[in-house]
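Batch job 17 of 40 flagged for manual review because the log was empty.
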Amino acid sequence: MLEAESDISLGARIRQVRRSQGLTQKAFADSLGIAQGYLSSLEAGKKIPSETLLIALTHLYHVDERWLLSGEGAPEAEILISAPAGEVRLSESRTPLLKRIPPEFPRGISAEDVLEYLSIPDTPSGCYAMVAYGDFMAPTIQDKDLVFFKPGEEARTGDVVLVSSKWDDTILRRYRINADGIWLSPDNSLYKPFQPASNCAIIGKVMAVWRKVKF
């Protein structure tokens, strides 16, 4: 359990977080994707951490950002989903934008899997985000759209889902059930639907899509 101390430096608070987890400098640095020597300099106040590193630290170890930066408030942030130290935690205010989806998803996500954390209003809680590529789901989902998906949601016919495909990739398709069984269909009529193989699995259900529009 972290103790609130407002009269110590940022580096000392980073060291406090590490010690509260019972981690060595090497283990803590590895979890954040930085070198042990760099962490040592941070804790000693000789270097200033980047914003990206601070965001990763607050989410990985469930630390309140305001406390980490200023020493004010409570050290521990309120969580939605708990996870072991070293894994990504979900928060109400930020959504992890994933660089990749590991095979053991949703468990086992590390800081190396997260590109950044997004703060977008009205995003459903418990979601992860990814960038869509290709035109398989056009016009519903277009190339480079931000897709917010939630693991563990029951898929119903007509839902757009993220699935692990028979090509050992993750793809977006529309989930449909008919007399022939389950089908995964693209919204783009140029591509054909297919029935999922036994090794295909639904990773999550799409909850929202954001698109950057050029003017």
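Reviewer: the log was empty due to a logging misconfiguration, but the result itself is present. The first strand starts at residue 95 and ends at 98. Unflagging and moving on to job 18.
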